[in-house]
Amino acid sequence: MIAVAELTSLSYVWWCALTGRRGRLLWVAASALTGEGVALMVGNGDCPLGPLQKRLGDPVPLFELVLPPRAARAAVPVLTGVAGLGLAVVLVRSVPHMPVRP
Fold it and tell me: Residue 84 belongs to what domain range?
């Protein structure tokens, strides 16, 4: 469920980046992605919920359910970059442009 929320947040941030849409939901999505990014940094790139997942009897990481192991290991850094780029585009497009004098 958390992965679905994170991927939905990522999709929504990019939709806002491309369409110029702004609103409360964008900031909720951006906050969710930022929180996940901080948690990944604290965990040295590992999902902070991994130990809980293992204790519940599911030792297979989420991305390894749908991707080969090598691609699954690359998914977190790639998605982090995609999220960071999307947030950067939102920020750049949110800054009012200064008029250029001739």
Answer: 2-92
